Amino acid sequence: MTNKNKQLEKEQKAHFAYAKSGNLPISSKQCIEICRNLRYKNTGWAKRYLEEVIVLKRAVPFRRFLMDMGHKPGMSSGRFPQKAAKEVLSLIKSVEANAQAKGLNTSTLKISKIVANKASIPLTGGRHRTGTKRANLEIEVKEMPALKKRETKQQKEKTTKKSVKKKETTEEKKEGKKTNEAKENKETVSKVTETKIPTENKVVPENQVGENKE
Fold first, then answer.
1. In angstroms, rounded to a whole number, what is the distance separating the alpha carbons of residues 142 and 190?
2. Residue 57: beta bridge partners?
3. Element spanning 195, H or E
4. Strand-pair partners of 140
5. Nearest of 123, 31, 33 to residue 75 by alpha carbon
6. Superfamily in which the 13-143 domain is placed by CATH
7. Of 112, 47, 92, whose CA–CA distance to 100 is shortest?
8. Exposed site from 139, 155, 166, 200, fewest CB < 10 Å?
9. What Rg do the C-alpha atoms of the chain give, in angstroms?
10. Hey, where are the domains in the chain?
11. Who's near 47: CB < 8 A, 6+ residues apart?
């Protein structure tokens, strides 16, 4: 690999965060169905979804492992895998903590990879030994750029009206300033003309002339 490719990989990894959990006592089949529903979703949405599953408000649709499974309201076949949902929820919280420690923005995290695999099955049960359920979980999160809020038609109309009003007010202020400046100029001109008129050229009425002679 060239140095440029290595630098690109480092820059890309700087926007990712990872978390793993292994040998969890949960069903791998249920985890696979949950992961399929959470892949490429936002972490905030995923947490709300799993919390609703745990409280039995929202069922997880099953598409692959649905043998002898009943229907749920609003979907064909589904279940409430509470135990698996709790483990997946704790994994999402841990990956968010890792991202925060790395300096990423936790409000714009997107699940780019979430995988559930079957783990090694220990034999338990004493004399009649049976295999127990175990699963491995892995999650990868990517920091996405913050999206700009789209303005609705009403907001656009409000902004255009505000801009038009501002323009009108600015134009009115300019016109008022011009009128005030014109008035001030006229007043100054009249004052200057009054001061420039000589006293000799002033016309004295005849009555005043006679009185002065007497």
1. 76
2. none
3. helix 153-196
4. 18, 113
5. 33
6. Ribosomal protein L22/L17 (3.90.470.10)
7. 92
8. 200
9. 41
10. 13-143, 153-202
11. 89, 92, 93
Task: Check pLDDT > 60 for residue 210.
Answer: no
Which pair of structure tokens corresponds to residue 146?
């913050």
Tell which residue, 62, 116, 61, has the closest CA to residue 84. Answer: 116
> Distance of CA 111 to CAs 141, 194, 207, Å?
5, 85, 108
Evaluate if residue 131 carries a pLDDT over 90.
no
* Distance from the Cα of residue 175 to its chain's centroid: 43
The per-residue pLDDT for range 167-199, each reduced to its tens digit, is 767 777 777 676 777 777 767 766 666 555 454
Q: Which of 150, 30, 127 is nearest to 80 (CA)?
A: 30
What mean pLDDT is predicted for residues 111-117?
Answer: 95
Which regions of the chain does DSSP assign to beta strands (E)? 16-24, 60-61, 71-72, 75-79, 109-118, 123-124, 130-131, 135-143
Phi, psi of 80 (to 5 degrees): -115, 80
* pLDDT score, position 124: 79
Indicate the length of the chain as a whole number: 214
How many separate helices (H) and strands (E) can be counted in the chain?
A: 6, 8
Which residues neighbour 46 within 8 Å (Cβ) at sequence distance 6 or greater? 38, 92, 111
Give the tokens for residue 63.
């598409």
In angstroms, the Cα distances linking 207 to 88, 200, 202, 210, 211 are 116, 18, 15, 5, 6
Instruction: With 0.90 as the threshold, say if the pTM is over it.
Output: no
